[in-house]
């Protein structure tokens, strides 16, 4: 009887420690959005947010942005002509990986839980690839030291400042 009482009393503690999937960002999901979902399903998955659709002249939806109540962009989706989501661009720190990393975290925090594989410069950002995840973490080029800020040569990850802040995460499906 004592063991049974202990088991029943510990159930709420067990379930309260289980991480919620509603804000999880992984290779197969962003919150309640799954990689197998079509772009047409997004409105029903995020009823409290505004949806801004991107359509072709034919009216076909090929992308959309999800905005919170303050009209700040949470994420943007790109779909193929069949409506399958191919790319998710995350702009909101609400979404985190299982290791607790997302928009707003620093490169130093990223390095504590992931192994940086390479850093690739682009026009406005630097894309950071990690070994343990297919997610791509982006940093603004303005956060780079002057010696590499304007170069398009490959960047050695040790050259990146640990205080640089992730401003976007890209998930490819």
Describe the overall structure.
- The protein is an alpha+beta fold.
- The chain folds into two domains: 20-90, no CATH class; 107-172, no CATH class.
- The protein is 18% helix and 34% strand.
- It is built from four helices and eleven strands.
- The chain has helices at 2-17, 42-45, 107-113, 146-149; strands at 25-26, 29-30, 33-34, 50-55, 61-67, 73-79, 85-90, 116-121, 125-130, 133-140, 166-172.
- The strands form two sheets. An eight-stranded antiparallel beta sheet has the order 4-5-6-7-11-10-9-8, covered by helices on one side. A three-stranded antiparallel beta sheet has the order 1-2-3, with no helix packed on it.
- The protein is globular, with a radius of gyration of 19 Å.
- 23% of the residues are buried.
- Residues 2-19 have low confidence and may be disordered.
Write the layout of secondary structure elements.
Blueprint: H1 2-17, E1 25-26, E2 29-30, E3 33-34, H2 42-45, E4 50-55, E5 61-67, E6 73-79, E7 85-90, H3 107-113, E8 116-121, E9 125-130, E10 133-140, H4 146-149, E11 166-172
Antiparallel strand pairs: 1-2, 2-3, 4-5, 5-6, 6-7, 7-11, 8-9, 9-10, 10-11
């Amino acid at each position: 009887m004592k063991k049974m009482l202990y088991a029943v009393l510990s159930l709420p503690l067990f379930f309260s420690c289980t991480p919620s999937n509603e804000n999880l960002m992984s290779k197969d999901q962003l919150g309640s959005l799954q990689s197998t979902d079509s772009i047409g399903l997004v409105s029903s998955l995020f009823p409290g947010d505004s949806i801004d659709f991107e359509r072709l002249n034919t009216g076909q939806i090929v992308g959309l942005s999800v905005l919170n109540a303050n009209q700040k962009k949470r994420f943007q989706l790109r779909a193929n002509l069949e409506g399958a989501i191919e790319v998710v661009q995350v702009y909101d720190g609400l979404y985190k990986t299982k290791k607790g990393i997302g928009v707003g975290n620093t490169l130093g925090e990223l390095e504590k839980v992931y192994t940086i594989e390479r850093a690739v410069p682009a026009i406005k950002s630097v894309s950071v690839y990690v070994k343990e995840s297919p997610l791509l973490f982006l940093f603004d080029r303005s956060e780079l030291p002057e010696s590499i800020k304007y170069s398009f040569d490959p960047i050695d990850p040790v050259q990146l400042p640990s205080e640089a802040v992730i401003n976007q995460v890209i998930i490819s499906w």
